[in-house]
Structure formats: C-alpha cells, structure tokens
Amino acid sequence: MQIYLDHSATTPTRSEAVEAMLNSLTQAWGNPSSLHHWGETAATAVETARLQVADLINAPAESIIFTSGGTEANNLALMGALPQKPGHLIISGVEHAAISEPAGRLQEQGWQVTRLSVTPQGRVSPEDFKAALRPDTALASVIYGQSEVGTVQPIAELAAIARGHGVLFHTDAVQVAGRLPLDVEALGVDLLSLSSHKLYGPKGVGALYVRPGLSLQPLLAGGGQERGRRSGTEAVPNIVGFGVAAALASSELDSESPRLEQLRDRLFEHLAGVWSLQVTGDRQNRLPHHVSFLVDAEDSRGKPITGKALVRQLNLAGIAISSGSACHSGKLAPSPVLLAMGYPERLAQAGIRLTLGRDTTEADIDWTAGVLKQCVMGQRPL
User: Fold this and answer.
1) In total, how many domains does the chain have?
2) Which one in 12, 98, 353, 360 has a CA-CA gap of 20 to 30 Å to 319?
C-alpha cells in the first residue's frame, strides 16, 4: 500500500494540466515576445493563464507577475518593493527560508529587521505587530499558512494595521492557495506569493501579485518581459499548466477544503490518545490539509526519536510524510520554526508533518494512524 501524505512539499501534477502543457509544447511553442502568428499564439496562452491565476485570488490580470516559483516571488517582493535607502523591515519568526534568508541579506546591507515573536501555536499577535512598526518601516512580510505546523495567520488584520501606518504588506500564500479562499481585495495586501506545484501544477513556475500602482524594481535585467518587471523568456508550458491548475483549484475549493478538514480532524482524533505525539501549531486557525506533531519519546537505545527517523520508518511502510519544510527536511539542524515557537532544541528536531491531498481517502488516514501508532506506542517517554 502506497500512501502519499506530503502535499505541502509538492503535489502530483494534474492530468488536465499535463495535457494543456503538452498542447502548449506542440501548438504554442513560439516566443511570446515575437510579433508573428507563432509568437501571438504563445502570448495568448500566457495571458489566458494569467487570467486564471488572477481569478484564483480575485486580482486584475495585470497585477500578476510570473516567476520561477514561490522562492523567486518572495525574493522579488522583498528586494523589489523596498527602497534603495536602508530602513526597517518586519517579518515573523516563522517565515519560510525564502523570506527569512533574503531578510538576512538585507540586514547585511544595512536594513534593520524585526523578527516578530509568535505564540506557542505559531501565531503572530496583531498587538505585537503594531508595536513593532516604526516611522522608517518600509515593508512587513508575514507568512499566511505555515508549512511546518499549519498555523494560519490573521493576515487581513495585520495588513489593515500596516496600511493604516503607510507600510507595504506582503504575504507568502504558497501553502494557502487552492486550500483556502484567497481574495487580495478582502485581505488588503500589497504583495502576495504563489507557487504552482503546491496546487497540482508543474514545478518551476510561480507568481507574485503586485497591487496595481505599486512600483517594483526588477531583480533580473534583460528583455523586459512581464511588463518590464521580470525579464526572461516565459516558460510557456509551465505557465499554461499553472493556469489550468489554478482554474481547477478555484472551481473545486468549496468542496475540497471541507473534505480535507474532515480527513485532517479524523487523523487528529485517531492519534489523540498517543502520549508521545504532541500536536504543533494552532488547531483552530489551521490549514485544512495539515497535521503535525512532535515525537516526545526515546528509542530502545535511550536516544531521542527525531522526526527524520520516523519519516524513514513510515517510508519503509509505504507512507510518505515529512519532518518539516521540504527545503530543510534533509538537514540535521533543529527547525527554526519550532525554535521560534519556544520548543527546546531537542524537540525542535522531533517534528513530523502529514499533509493531505486530492487523492487522500479515509482508508489512507485510518491505515496511516495505525502504522504511526505502532511506530511510537512502544517507545519510552523522555
């Protein structure tokens, strides 16, 4: 039995997206910047996808910049929207590395960076956010749905506070798109990042929403594609696949999100009595597909069980889970997110994440719960 429960790392590309990509490779293979028929065909395919992605977040099509993925979108949001003169930047303590590392580089260039503390559930306090704002604060970036622990932040409230102080606000919505409703007008954000392969599109493409009227300094110089905001010939097949996946995600959201919530809660209920598994993240304000725990136990040799060890055990049983963000899952260091949430270093290496998807069934949930219990129930408490 093979069960894939690592949908926050990546999702399988939908057959509809694959079909559209193949059609693009054979029928719309021209350069979108070319003025002839072949170029116009490719350009039309790109603009169709732009409309589809924009519709997913209730944005005008011209506000969408296609990028190589969520990481580039996050980097472009920070590096492109900030002024040349160093000032003050706010991020949360539970950001993805695609935000925290660029913020670190900006700090080396003279920017002052405030990393907001979070509750033990990983939530940013609006009061703390407001208190951190300064006259020279240029931008704030807070992740919408945390990939390791599933916590959903009060983005609309935070963005309203930022707007009231004349501060630009960005959110990394990579984990939210296709799982919860996204409306940039209702959220009031200035910038928002997306990634195709988190919502059943291909890898290698993402998007940055930029509020109309907001100027953005491009990271790449060259041919001036994407209205001069992101140079480089567009990856038309990937963009087309992204558009199709976004359209399908939008049309299915009302049914798929509650279905995932039910499966998520079913898994939590199955494992509620397992003393060695501590729930991480916020149970109420949580991504609908996300389950996460700390393994608070030691093995037969008296050594603490790490999340990676449990990932390997479940892999042998044909079940794919993660020990945290896919970008850090191969590293031995404690999770920066769990450390920021107040967990000691020992437990910050003991996190596991099970993330559900379109093909996940109740049978998958029940079987996984049984296997996971077998792996941890016989272990000794620390």
Assistant:
1) 2
2) 98
